[in-house]
Queue: 2 jobs
Job 1
Amino acid sequence: MPRPDVPDLVERARRGEARAVARLISLVESGADSDAGAADLRAVAAALAPHAGRAHVVGLTGPPGVGKSTSTSVLVGALRARGRRVGVLAVDPSSPFSGGALLGDRVRMGEHATDDGVFIRSMATRGHLGGLAWATPQALRVLDAAGCDVVLVETVGVGQSEIEVVALADTTVVLLAPGMGDGVQAAKAGILEIADVFVVNKADRDGAAQTVRDLRHMMSLDGGDGGCGWQRPVVPTVAARGEGVDELVAALDAHREWMDAGGERTRRRLARAEAEIQAITLERVRARIGDRSGLPRLAERVVAGELDPYAAADELAHSVTGR
Ligand SMILES: Nc1nc2c(ncn2[C@@H]2O[C@H](COP(=O)(O)OP(=O)(O)O)[C@@H](O)[C@H]2O)c(=O)[nH]1
Ligand SMILES: [Mg+2]
């Protein structure tokens, strides 16, 4: 297969050409598949570097079924109505598919499919450990460079992905619904700390008002801001009917303004870049250990009592870094 002309693709993506955007995201997704894929990924990363950093990246997380996809879809509508260009990344670490959309999401997003101010993409990890960690930031850069004002990242709120969405987003929205992941459960799951904005979706259901009160009470106990100066709002919504979406957009805009005013957005981006560099480096070290280190021989010497594991680690580190 001929190698893609990456600078040309980036140029076309910057003009908003949907096919070029899709192709670039495919390239970063397949970066782990082969040496050629890795070379393309690096070429894309290099070509995008000067063009990213403008979009407001909003992560939406929460338990399955809480209404993340529905909320994402109504947010797209509300943001488009304000004239903003919107990107959507649906990130599902458990999905066996890649490149294609999750069917439900595609159906719901159908109304936006013909709007050239919207780019929608589903991503999966294909079981690659840490796959999300490197592919998703690059996909975000593609959407950013393509002129998206806002990029919405929907992540299944289970296990590590909650943490990963924080590493990706400028603003993290945690969705809860009455009867599933109420305030107390959420506190146990450690989901409260990561939120910049809370949404209590399914506000048409019994118990929603109580969940909103519980959360607001919890926020008031720690001053609401975890000492950082941002009062974390709790927004009730009925995403299925589009209710509360204007309040949610207002909360997202307010958070972005607060971040820009105090330098928080830059701090978060620096932390994110550090995490990304670290992930890439660790991945590289791991690959070298697998490829051509003397690990099996070192293990034999540890088992034989000739070497302790710390000394063995020193030798291994020396052999993989060349220092
Ligand atoms: N009653 C009610 N149902 C909703 C609301 N928002 C979404 N749903 C429904 O909840 C189900 C799960 O929604 P979905 O957006 O797929 O959740 P996700 O798994 O978090 O992405 C769907 O059947 C939605 O139609 C809401 O505000 N009220
Ligand atoms: Mg969903």
Job 2
Amino acid sequence: MREDDRYDATPYVPDGAGLAALRRAAAGCEGCPLHRDATQTVFGSGDTAARVLLVGEQPGDQEDRRGEPFVGPAGKLLARAIDDAGLDPAGTYVTNAVKHFKFTRTGSGKRRIHKAPGLRELSACKPWLLAELRAVEPEVVVALGATAGKALRGSAFRVTKERGVPLPLPDADGAVLVATIHPSAVLRADEDREAVYAGLVADLRVAAGALRPD
Ligand code: SF4
């Protein structure tokens, strides 16, 4: 057996647990090697009965240090976009497809540079995401970027082709999936940043429109 075949969080995920117990258990996950270099597990947070659950890629540098998702610049931009899309920020839950920060160091070793998680890490960490989906039972799941889309829809997912439309989500019974870009793509945009941001908000409006009437 290759070492990759043993990457799997399943043994660490308590059956039928609520979010608080899942968060505690995830703190000790060693389901793949990413726990070795990261500071801590960054589990999801937000409304435990959220109607909208948003999934990013992985924690960034600030999230890794603080232990909370979406607390850096991309998180602040996402909060603004959620508000601009007419969603209630207090009624959302945010998490990541991978719960530990993957990075490389610069030559001097001082700076940590984000490195995208691979399919084996996505697959290893997916049991945590599934457990969050079962616990929160959202109506709408938003995939923020290609990595989250691949985690939820498989490796053939292409965010450029499938963003901004409600899609079925077999992993969450009764919920629909809406994909969009990751908020960090807005921050990275060299030109037309406002247009890129407007695209993110437009996709989030589709998510708002997919909610069941009150
Ligand atoms: S990235 Fe996921 S599977 Fe890997 S150690 Fe962290 S919590 Fe476990």
